[in-house]
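If I may wish for something, please walk me through the protein I am sending here so I can picture the backbone:
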Amino acid sequence: MSVLVNKDSKIIVQGFTGSEGTFHAGQMIDYGTNVVGGVTPGKGGQKHLDKPVFNTVAEAVKEVGADTTIIFVPPAFAADAIMEAADAGIKVIITITEGIPVADMIKAAEYIKHKACRLIGPNCPGVITPGEAKVGIMPGFVFKKGTVGIVSKSGTLTYEAADQVVKQGLGITTAIGIGGDPIIGTTTKEAVEMLINDEETECVVMIGEIGGQLESDAAKWYQNSGSKKPVIGFIAGVTAPAGRTMGHAGAIVGGSDDTAQAKKAILKECGIHVVESPAEIGKKVAEVLNKK
């Protein structure tokens, strides 16, 4: 099994013919991902990367049965692209775009609440199920198939965690980059829950950062779930100076519970194996799975 994307996913690319869309769609296709076409308004009927281009998402759903989309639309139009995809019946909407205005995301997040879809991102690296589908901007060669799920706010730390897990002789079921913006579609708790409930996932790596309550909410859910699957946690930002703007827009420390130290304490209380450095993730995963 896997979560969100697999070899049967029918994926389209919104912003298909732009430079970012072209580059990453090409990488996805080379990986073996089932990209069935793309959307660029005004360019419908053309071929791009040997795939059909559609004017609207609705056309792509009708013509090629698309059920998953990845969005490379510029920030000013990205929220509209999310809502268009939801309207068209797309089930999984993965939004890579960084810098979407918060007011636009508030509107989009509210709009899709009433639709049968799941939004990943924005400002995220995407989702990968190794050997089946790479729907994102991550380096596919880092990921090997296995039994460890990854949830992360950070793109680069997703790749780092995967690399370490693989170097321990293990592999990944699905890695989900949830994004670092203040308003995102899928929370840490929701992503962790999906992986805990996945039959093939034996262990989950949860990578968070300062700011917000997402990791604490996930930890409390895990504690109450009764799950015996181990969760390894890392919180970035221990050395971040107070009052300094840095990194993700969502990494805003609003209170004492938002600091890295406070979050780590909550995670430990909830039964999560907390590591102090990202360099320790792989070893800790191997240790808890008894596969040294």
